[in-house]
Each structure stands twice: as structure tokens, then as C-alpha cells.
Amino acid sequence: MKKNRIGQGKTALITGASNGFGMEFAKLFAKDGFNLVLVARTEDRMKDLGYSLQDEYSLEKVCIITSDLTEPDAPQDIYDELKRIGVQVDVLVNNAGVGLHGFFHETDLDKEEEIIQLNITAVMKLTKLFLRDMKARNEGKILNVASIVSLMPAPLMAVYAATKAFVLSFSEALSNELKDTNITVTALCPGASNTYFFKRAQAENTRAANGPLSEPDVVAKDGYAALMKGEVKIVSGLMNKVQAATSNLLPDTALASTMRYQMEEEAEKETQYHSSL
Question: Transmembrane residues, as ranges (predicted)?
């Protein structure tokens, strides 16, 4: 067993842990000796990941919690279960999130209510529950996965972008509230990435999905490093950093036009162009 790793004796809870960023976060925490609580809806993938990491890095404990965070009671159920089995969460990673592509007047209301429940309400509830315990100990870390679109309006992803704006604002506010404690809150803002996000959001034919994509392991490393340093916000990727800087200079109408272009389907635009000739 490796000794003196920074996570030795500590536990990290990661939501959305069955793929994408969540899977990469699990690998990083395990490498540094953190015990893991993996939360997602897909039990088999989490078990394969968690137990392989437990063997590879000689972790004391890996907890697998199958949970659908679009259900209102899920955060409380997760918290209660960990209390019941005596697991203390030292690091909370609110990674789970989903989007939906399309014009707002045409998209499915039930799906968008689930997006708000997952991207906002579950993040708020999990943070509230575990932060209270961290505050009592005066120690802990929280990483909330926002998005580059938290910095700008995103037509055709209007609800998703709005939820990520909440995550960023929420994280920055909590970071200030906790500035005189040993607890840090970090917001990670990735751009378009090579995960299942676009497929789940029904946006796989958009320009953004078919342009340059960040790799999830690179994004996770950026977020993990910022979390360990106690940074308030990290934008992952050089081009995304440029885009974030530009968002402070351009009017929102220009940003919205740029984002709409990225979120349009190329084939659809070409059809519209030819039909207008």
C-alpha cells in the first residue's frame, strides 16, 4: 500500500461517476488515496470502475450508490445512507448534469424540469447537507462542475446554460462566504468535450459537437488541480479561456449569436440555405 498520499483516510463523493468527467475524477482521487463514494444511475459501470480502482490503489473503502438525482428525495437519501454506514465525506464533487438541445418553445417540459432538478436542485441540496458537516469540522472541499456557457447565453440550450450560470454564481458566492474557513468551493468550467453529453442532449449533429473537443481526462485534471489549490474558478482549455475572456468584452447579444451558431445543426442550415436559392 502506498503511504502518505494526500487523500489517505479521506473520502470523496462523486456524482455522475459512471462515465465522462466523473469517471476521470474517480481515477484521480483514487490515485491520491481517497476512498470513494460513487453515485450514478448505472450500477454495473460504477462497480467495475470502483472496485478496479480499489484494487489498483489499495483503497480502504469504495461505496457504490445507485441513485437518480432527478428525484427530489435523492440527495437526502444519499446523505442519510452515508450517515447510517458511518462514512464521512471530505470532498464533494457535484459533477452530474445533463442538457437538452432545441428551441425552448418546442422542447419537452418534463425533461427540462428534470434538468433543473439535476443541475440546480440536487447540487444545492447535496452541498447544503455535506457543507454543514464540513463547517462543523472546519475542513472540506467542494467542486461544482459548471460550464463555459455559464458565462454567456446559449440559444438552443437555454435551460442548460441557465442552470450552469446558477452553478457558477452559487459556487463563487459560497467561496466568499467560506473565505475565513478551511473549506473551499471551486467551480470548473469546461467547454465542449468528448463525453456522452451531446448525445444525451440530442445535440450530436451541432457544430459544437463536431468541432474541437476537450478530452475528459484533461478537463478532470484541470478541475482536480484547481480544487486541491483551493481556486474559486477554473476554465479548462486554452480556447475556452480565450472565449471566457471574450465574454467579458462582447455584449450579450453578440455572445448569444455566436453560441447559437455553434449550437445549430450544420445539415439543417445547409438545407435552409439551398431552399432559399
Answer: 142-162
End-to-end distance of the chain based on CA atoms, in angstroms? 69
Instruction: State the residue for C-alpha cell 437518480.
Output: 68
Read off the pLDDT of residues 122-149 as tens digits, 9 standing for 90 and up.
Answer: 999 999 999 999 999 999 999 999 999 9
Tens-place pLDDT, residues 149-199:
999 999 999 999 999 999 999 999 999 999 999 999 999 999 999 998 999
Q: Which amino acid is at 55?
A: D
Number of domains present in the structure of the chain: 1
**Threshold 0.85, pTM exceeds:** yes
Long-range contact pairs involving 167-170 (C-beta distance under 8 Å, separation at least 24): 167/94, 167/119, 167/120, 167/123, 168/144, 168/233, 170/123, 170/124, 170/127, 170/144
Strands 11-15 and 140-145: unpaired
| Angle, alpha carbons 236-237-240 (nearest 5°) | 90
Question: Rounded to an integer, what distance in angstroms lies between the CA atom of residue 98 and that of residue 95?
Answer: 10
Spot the catalytic one: 57, 79, 160, 224. Answer: 160
How many helices (H) and strands (E) would you count in the chain? 11, 7
- Give the amino acid at 48: D
| CATH number for the domain that contains residue 186 | 3.40.50.720
221 occurs within a structural domain: yes
